[in-house]
Each structure stands twice: as structure tokens, then as C-alpha cells.
Specification:
alpha/beta, globular, disordered N terminus, binds magnesium ion, EAL domain-containing protein
Length: about 270
């Protein structure tokens, strides 16, 4: 009986593996043509000041409107783009387009762009950034690259040099989804961060009263304070969460309460008067 059950589970598992593979192949084929077919776009989500609520940054988030599947999440298609070696092409398009958009915003508003490990190690990233900045005329100080800890931890010497070159241009980094599960912090002194973004799960758990999450948020805030950089609480969905994070000393907020990711036409905050 136990054996049969085990086999059943195995068959089910094997089937769902095959489904996933087919799904990925389908998505991969379509993603290769998505850019040319105009299916990709960028939504922007504000990161607001904790004191007066004004927009400090807009985060560029890639969107794919598939002709039959509708909106496909970047959490699904970005990993596929990486496997299919499409991420450099899509990333270059996003950087160039977002820098062009940002060049028309009020100069007090920065642009943040998500960058994956593969993009950093591909060898074309630095020229891609330089080209996007030159083409758009965006001041390098207004460009912030969001990296997750896993990206930073995978860095080798070559990527460290790349980070330094970008810092020398004036570009800085934001540490995205911070708190998700790494503990070594030596990368903090190897490159220039201008912001730490506390992962949504911690923010929401802390605001709900979890003592452990409160302790983690407090520790991140004091780390950011000692580094003299901003700390953003991600995933703020209600006023109580904003109040709780303000009380803990977060300097910036991001989340549906302050604004959902929207196409630029619908994010009038971003435009110069
Ligand atoms: P992320 O950079 O941490 O972006 C935040 C995600 O949380 C976004 O999902 C956003 O829509 C969502 N979010 C924002 N506020 C709230 C809130 O209050 N509540 C909840 N429940 N969710 C909120 P999205 O746009 O689906 O992006 C998911 C992830 O995909 C991003 O996480 C980022 O890691 C990645 N991604 C998006 N665009 C790009 C890109 O252009 N390049 C790369 N490499 N990765 C990207
Ligand atoms: Mg991000
Ligand atoms: Mg994040
Ligand atoms: Mg995230």
C-alpha cells in the first residue's frame, strides 16, 4: 500500500515536471519575439518619503502582456529569460527605455532598476549602462540599481570591479528584498549602496506584531542609519503598516497603499510640471 502510494506520488511529480518543462519551452519561444511584437512594457511604482510622502524614486518593473495568456509575472518570465540568454537583450531595452523616461521627470526623482546576477556577469552590462545614460542624458546619480542579496553574494572579483566602475560613474545600488535569508554582510563595504529595501514579508509580519520580525526590522534600520543610507519598507498595504514602520525609523515606503506599479501615463507624479 505504501509502495503504491509512493509510486502515485512519483508519477504525479514526473507529470508536473513535464508540464513545467513544456510551459517553459512555450514561454521561452514567445518571449524571444515579445520585444519585437511590442508586448513588453514598463510599469513604475513609487518609493515615497517617510516624512512628507513625496515621491523619492520610481522603480521600473518589467511587464509582459502575452497575446493569449495575458499578463505573465516577471517572477516567471525573468528566470526563463535568463535560461534562454534573453535577459541581456530585455535588460538593455528596459534600461534604455526607463532612463529615457526618467530623464523627463523632475530631477529630484530617482529611477531604480532591477538587475539579475546573470546581467552583472555577462560582460556587456557596463557598456549597456553607459549607453543608456548617454542616449537618455539621465544624470548617473539618479540611477539606482536594485540587487538582491543572492546576486551580491555570487559576486566574483570581476563583478566587484564592475560595481566599482558603476559607482565611479555616480550610479549607486539598492539592496532589494533584504532579510530573506543571508547573514554575511561583508559586501556592504565593497560597493556603494544608497538604499536598503526591507523585504515585504518582514515588513508585514513586523507590522502585525511578530516580535522576531520587529527585531529584524529594527536591526536593519540601525544598520542603515550607521551607514548613512536610506531604508525602504516594501509591501506597505495599509496606513497601520506605514505607521508601524515609521515608528521603527524607516525613511521610505513602497507598497500598494502609496501606489501600485502603473504605466507612466498613469503615474503623473513622475512628470515635471
Ligand atoms: P521586486 O523588485 O522586489 O519588486 C516588488 C514586487 O512586489 C513587484 O512585483 C510589485 O508589484 C510587488 N509589490 C509592490 N508593493 C506591493 C504591496 O504592497 N503588496 C504586495 N503584495 N506586492 C507588492 P512584480 O512587478 O511582479 O515583480 C516581481 C519581481 O520580479 C521583482 O521583485 C523583481 O525581482 C523582478 N523584476 C521585475 N522587473 C524586473 C526587471 O526588469 N529585471 C529583473 N532582473 N527583474 C525584474
Ligand atoms: Mg526591486
Ligand atoms: Mg523588493
Ligand atoms: Mg521581491
Amino acid at each position: 500500500e505504501a509502495k503504491r502510494q509512493g509510486r502515485g506520488i512519483f508519477v504525479k511529480y514526473a507529470l508536473s515536471m513535464r508540464d513545467t518543462l513544456e510551459e517553459r519551452t512555450l514561454i521561452e519561444n514567445d518571449l524571444g519575439r515579445a520585444l519585437e511584437k511590442g508586448e513588453l512594457s514598463i510599469s513604475y511604482q513609487p518609493i515615497v518619503d517617510g516624512v512628507d510622502g513625496h515621491t523619492r524614486c520610481l522603480e521600473a518593473l518589467m511587464r509582459w502582456n502575452h497575446p493569449t495568456r495575458g499578463e505573465v509575472s516577471p517572477e516567471i518570465f525573468v528566470p526563463v529569460a535568463e535560461d534562454a540568454l534573453l535577459i541581456d537583450k530585455l535588460g538593455a531595452w528596459l534600461l534604455r527605455t526607463a532612463c529615457q523616461d526618467a530623464a523627463a521627470w523632475d530631477k529630484s526623482i530617482k529611477l531604480t532598476v532591477n538587475v539579475s546576477a546573470l546581467q552583472l556577469s555577462s560582460g556587456v552590462f557596463l557598456p549597456t549602462v553607459i549607453e543608456a545614460l548617454a542616449y537618455s542624458g539621465l544624470e548617473p546619480e539618479r540611477l539606482v540599481l536594485e540587487l538582491t542579496e543572492s546576486v551580491v553574494l555570487e559576486m566574483d572579483e570581476e563583478v566587484e570591479r564592475l560595481a566599482r566602475s558603476l559607482n565611479e560613474l555616480g550610479v549607486t545600488f539598492a539592496l532589494d528584498d533584504f532579510g530573506r535569508g543571508y547573514s554575511s554582510l561583508n559586501y556592504i563595504e565593497k560597493m556603494q549602496f544608497s538604499m536598503i529595501k526591507i523585504d515585504r514579508d518582514f515588513v508585514q509580519a513586523a507590522a502585525a506584531g511578530s516580535q522576531k520580525s520587529l527585531a529584524v526590522v529594527a536591526a536593519i534600520v540601525s544598520l542603515a542609519e550607521s551607514l548613512g543610507i536610506d531604508v525602504t519598507a516594501e509591501g506597505i498595504e495599509g496606513i497601520e503598516q506605514a505607521d508601524a514602520m515609521r515608528a521603527l525609523g524607516c525613511s521610505c515606503f513602497q507598497g500598494f497603499h502609496f501606489g501600485r506599479p502603473e504605466p507612466l501615463q498613469q503615474a503623473p507624479l513622475a512628470m515635471t510640471a
